[in-house]
Design a protein that fits this description.
- The chain has 19 helices and eight strands.
- With 485 residues, the chain is an alpha+beta fold.
- The chain has a six-stranded antiparallel β-sheet. Strands 7-8 form a two-stranded antiparallel ribbon.
- Helix 3 packs antiparallel against helix 6, helix 10 packs antiparallel against helix 11 and helix 17 packs parallel to helix 19.
Length: 485
């Protein structure tokens, strides 16, 4: 079975475009009709579908990938499932293409040298943060390369394609055909030895070397350490590419030590050192700073719940939504989705969830979503006059970019066809400035509370509530409970 442009697959996915994908897989851009968002559908080529054991391994690996949840530097895996007889992974679609594509077209090197260097270091840090999160989750990627680093439309780099490499490596003898890209592979991976997380460290460093050299100039990943040394001895600069900073070259050298147990092994440390290098060069913080995972923890749980809803795993949906609301009692999407599930069971929207959304409108004053979700629930319950008032408030708060989504949900509420919604990403490169400001205000509030200056603490906490997306931050809630009796 092949997916073609214009097809409606499984009654849910409208195929918009198909790509060749990597050596072992095919990729399709599709629109998820209920979520109203674009996703990537990836599946192995038929020649790699050799056993049920491989298919089970594929789903197992993708399940671990999906458990990572929402992360600014990891392409989200929503779930894996069989579609038209093929094992498929449904993942986040990144419209900027791969880092390999950007290298080939040289779009990554555009602009003034200083701006270009800042971009390359930011990409290096963001991909390191993404791999740090993967390793924390127990995942070894096994095929880290520029082709598996994707770019958003804002240029943020994300790690993708976990699970595909591991699950479809038929044997050590056939490793070069599936689950291994020789020019980026570590020496131990090329030898067919058991892999540890430092194999990803080598492959990541080889990928960063390729970015600064403008492409691969070696035949085997095992040569990357020597290539780096030769490159730096020759001045560390490729044609029309900024020179590699010496501290960054030193870091790559530590990642490309031949013996696995002598390499730097912690991607968190790697990312921190890149950020330090960035700050020393540009006298400002790196845009790809350490992500605030506490901020997006409830979002992650909600989105995993919505994904499980697609698979009709209702017990897990309820568990994840309950956990999201325990993290953030006023989480708008989790409250909305919980209300929908309750309505499906009892034909009634529980007052508790409606009240959570009402409270959310008072806490996060600049956020339109609690107003919108409450309006849609009331409208679908036949309370149209009250709903219209809330809907008008939602439209008044939202910007022009959200207008179409607001109208879409309102139209669905008129038709009584509401379905669970995903939480939009609210962290990453675009939120670095707000995150830094929020962190400073939290530090001041904590100090004021320790020194019993409660008026100052409340003032800092009030100021932090005006930062978009941060008003319901768990840390802010904890400090508010201490500052306000």
């Amino acid at each position: 079975m092949s997916f073609r442009q214009g097809m409606l697959v499984d009654g849910l996915f409208e195929i918009l475009e198909s790509f060749g994908g990597g050596g072992m897989g095919l990729v399709h851009r599709a629109r998820h009709r209920l979520w109203n968002t674009e996703v990537a559908i990836k599946h192995p080529r038929n020649e790699f579908l050799k056993s049920l054991e491989q298919i089970r391994a594929f789903h197992s690996e993708c399940s671990v990938w999906s458990d990572i949840g929402l992360h600014p530097y990891v392409a989200s895996c929503y779930y894996s499932r069989a579609i038209e007889g093929l094992p498929c992974v449904i993942a986040e679609y990144c419209p900027g293409g791969s880092l390999q594509d950007a290298m080939t077209t040289r779009s990554i090197y555009r602009g003034e040298e200083e701006n270009c260097l800042a971009r390359l270091l930011s990409i290096s840090a963001s991909t390191a943060w993404g791999l740090a999160r993967a390793h924390e989750s127990g995942l070894i990627h096994c095929d880290v390369k520029p082709g598996n680093m994707l770019l958003t439309d804002h240029g943020t780099a994300k790690i993708a394609d976990f699970g595909l490499a591991v699950a479809f490596r038929p044997s050590q003898l056939d490793a070069k055909a599936a689950g291994l890209t020789v020019v980026f592979a570590s020496p131990e991976q090329i030898r067919g030895e058991p892999l540890t997380p430092v194999a990803d460290v080598w492959s990541w460093a080889a990928s960063m070397l390729a970015i600064f050299t403008g492409g691969v100039t070696w035949e085997s990943g095992a040569a990357c350490g020597a290539v780096l040394a030769e490159f730096m001895n020759a001045g560390g600069k490729a044609y029309r590419i900024p020179p590699m900073p010496v501290p960054f070259a030193v870091l790559l050298g530590e990642c490309l030590r031949f013996a696995p147990d002598t390499r730097i092994s912690d991607f968190g440390q790697i990312a921190e050192r890149i950020c330090q290098c960035y700050e020393e060069l540009f006298e400002e913080s790196c845009p790809a700073s350490k992500p605030d995972l506490e901020l997006i923890s409830a979002d992650s749980l909600n989105n995993r719940a919505v994904s499980r809803f697609d698979l009709a795993d209702l017990p897990e949906v309820h568990r994840l939504l309950d956990e999201a609301l325990s993290v953030d009692p006023l989480h708008p999407e989790a409250s909305f989705n919980s209300a929908l599930l309750a309505f499906a069971a009892s034909r009634k929207y529980p007052a508790a969830f409606l009240e959570r959304l009402r409270q959310g409108t008072q806490v996060d004053l600049g956020e339109y979503r609690p107003w919108l979700y409450l309006a849609c629930l009331l409208n679908s319950d036949g309370r149209s006059q009250e709903a219209s008032e809330w809907f008008a408030k939602a439209r008044g708060i939202a910007g022009p970019d959200e207008a179409s989504e607001i109208q879409r949900l309102w139209d669905l509420s008129n038709q009584r066809k509401l379905s669970p919604v995903l939480a939009p990403p609210i962290s990453g490169e675009d939120f670095d400035h707000d995150s830094t400001r929020f962190g400073r205000l939290m530090e001041k509030a904590e100090l004021a509370i320790r020194e019993q200056r409660m008026d100052d603490a409340r003032r800092y906490l009030l100021m932090s509530g005006d930062i978009p997306g941060f008003a319901r931050h768990p840390k802010r809630r904890r400090l508010l409970s201490q500052a306000i009796p």
